[in-house]
Structure formats: structure tokens, C-alpha cells
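Quick one, C-alpha cells below:
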């Protein structure tokens, strides 16, 4: 694939596809003709627009148009107590008190008092109560994305009450 397989277009004909940018300003384009997907960093195309239209040229020859949207920035700063569950190196279940610092539709960040015994890439469970009217308990499974001092970034794999969480994040 070449750098020019994704080119911006200016007209506003009906778009066939929507994709969202991730946190790194990357988007994944999937060719419906051959099923080939490519992920491209679109930083160079980003200015101030909320969305950009691009033309994708797949290696199979198919050319298709995509509307790329920024995910609404709904990372919500919170202060919620919870628990993180994981397995020790020897496979024993462990749990640690955590403080959830922020939540987005795709993940959360928490702080932990003592240095956790898990590593980037590990899968852990976390549960915490929202400060909504019902103090709804949310349980998530996630993968550790980053660890900086005692702050841990978790990317969701599954969420037990996704609708409640979506509503909470939109308020
Ligand atoms: Zn293709």
C-alpha cells in the first residue's frame, strides 16, 4: 500500500461508509470487494473539521469513499471507587481497590495504591459504582493498555451494562 491510497475529497456526494478515528488519529478502512482492511494514520489530513471525506484505493483495484469522523470526545472525568480483579503469576485470583479517574466509551483510567502485578496486555476485570441516581454497578472486562506510575489505562473488551454507561457518559 502506498501513502496515496487514502486521499481526501471535497465533494459531498452520499457517503457509503462511516468510520471513526481512534485516539491515535487512525482509521481502519475495509474494502467490501475483497475484505482487505488497512489502518492509516490520518493526522496529516486533520485540520479543524469534525469529519473528512476520503477516497480509498484498495490493492484489489476497488475504489470506495468513506466519511471519517472524530469520535465525540466524551471522556468523562470521574472519581469513583471500585475493585480490580486479576490473576497473579501463579494463577491466584487477586483484587485491589482502585479509583476510576476517567471513563470513555472505549475505556477507562484508574489509579491504584500499590504497584499492580499485572502488565500491559493483561486482561483484568474491574467493577465500580457510578455516581448516578441508582449508584449503578458497572462491571467491565478490559485489557491493560498503559501503566504510568500508579495510573492504569484499560481498554474495554466487554461491558456488563453498556447502555447505562453510554447514558452516564452523555450526561
Ligand atoms: Zn479490495
Amino acid at each position: 500500500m502506498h501513502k496515496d491510497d487514502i486521499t481526501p475529497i471535497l465533494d459531498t456526494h452520499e457517503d457509503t461508509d462511516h468510520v471513526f478515528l481512534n485516539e491515535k488519529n487512525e482509521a481502519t478502512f475495509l474494502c467490501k470487494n475483497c475484505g482487505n482492511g488497512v489502518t492509516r494514520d490520518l493526522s496529516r489530513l486533520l485540520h479543524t473539521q469534525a469529519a473528512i471525506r476520503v477516497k480509498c484505493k484498495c490493492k484489489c483495484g476497488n475504489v470506495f469513499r468513506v466519511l471519517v469522523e472524530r469520535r465525540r470526545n466524551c471522556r468523562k472525568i470521574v472519581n469513583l471507587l471500585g475493585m480490580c480483579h486479576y490473576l497473579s503469576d501463579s494463577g491466584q485470583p487477586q483484587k485491589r481497590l482502585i479509583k476510576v479517574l476517567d471513563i470513555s466509551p472505549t475505556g477507562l483510567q484508574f489509579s491504584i495504591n500499590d504497584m499492580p502485578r499485572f502488565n500491559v496486555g493483561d486482561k483484568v476485570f474491574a467493577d465500580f459504582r457510578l455516581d448516578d441516581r441508582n449508584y449503578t454497578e458497572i462491571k467491565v472486562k478490559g485489557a491493560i493498555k498503559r501503566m504510568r506510575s500508579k495510573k492504569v489505562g484499560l481498554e474495554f473488551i466487554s461491558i456488563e451494562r453498556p447502555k447505562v454507561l453510554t447514558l452516564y457518559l452523555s450526561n
